[in-house]
Amino acid sequence: EAQVTQNPRYLITVTGKKLTVTCSQNMNHEYMSWYRQDPGLGLRQIYYSMNVEVTDKGDVPEGYKVSRKEKRNFPLILESPSPNQTSLYFCASSDRERNGYTFGSGTRLTVV
Amino acid sequence: AQSVTQLDSQVPVFEEAPVELRCNYSSSVSVYLFWYVQYPNQGLQLLLKYLSGSTLVKGINGFEAEFNKSQTSFHLRKPSVHISDTAEYFCAVSENSGYALNFGKGTSLLVTP
After folding, report:
1. Chain B residue with minimal CA distance to A4?
2. How far apart are CA B106 and CA B6, in angstroms?
3. Which of A40, A50, A56, B36 is least buried, going by the fewest C-beta atoms within 10 A?
4. Contact partners, residue B11, CB within 8 Å, separation at least 6
5. pLDDT in tens, B69-97
6. Does B94 contact chain A (CB < 8 Å)?
7. Contact A32, A68 (CB under 8 A)
């Protein structure tokens, strides 16, 4: 089944404790992206990647890092999480034909 | 850069009534347009997309949308809604030269008996 897999689904952590949210797709998509969803703000792009070793900032990159060492994986790293990063995070991927993004099921992160 | 405006944050409607969710965009270049649906506690699912060709696009679950270039709109419609259509709906736009997808803030559709 074609899918984007995110882990974990839920995470509660403390301020300053580094964490990684993993994202993997099995569709051989070139393009991958991370979004955060907050009430009343919709989805905002954090980082995106056009291909392996090619990443760039989205609209709200502060406090986040990404890497794209393999085509299928695009982890999101929070080096020092803060409470304002409490949010619902989605990973998504797309092919060259732009047939629409495929989204993961989301990761609900709470930073206390 | 493009932007997306969803004109209604909430739309209450009775079951079996028609519904229209409005979306306007601004862009200086040609665009691709999408509607996504998010059911409670789930990820986003593609409802339909406009890439080129016919301006009337049909999607899943009986939804359709019409691309109007002169009005820069891409409104979503369904002639008769069900309780199960209760969800958050997002309009999104992408410049056809790039991959970045910009989302509107969403419209919450609430269908009641």
Report:
1. B43
2. 6
3. A40
4. B19, B21, B107, B108, B109, B110
5. 999 999 999 999 999 999 999 999 988 66
6. yes
7. yes
- The alpha carbon of residue B79 is apart from the nearest alpha carbon of chain A, in Å, by 24
Indicate yes or no: CB of B46 within 8 angstroms of CB of A100.
Answer: yes
Which tokens go with B98? 């790039």
Which of 33-72 (B) contact A at CB < 8 A? Answer: 34, 36, 42-46, 49, 51
User: Using an 8 Å Cβ cutoff, are A5 and A102 in contact?
Assistant: no
- Sequence-separated (6 or more) residues with CB below 8 Å from residue A11: A19, A21, A107, A108, A109, A110
A42 vs B44: CB contact, 8 Å cut-off? no
Average pLDDT (A81-92) is: 97
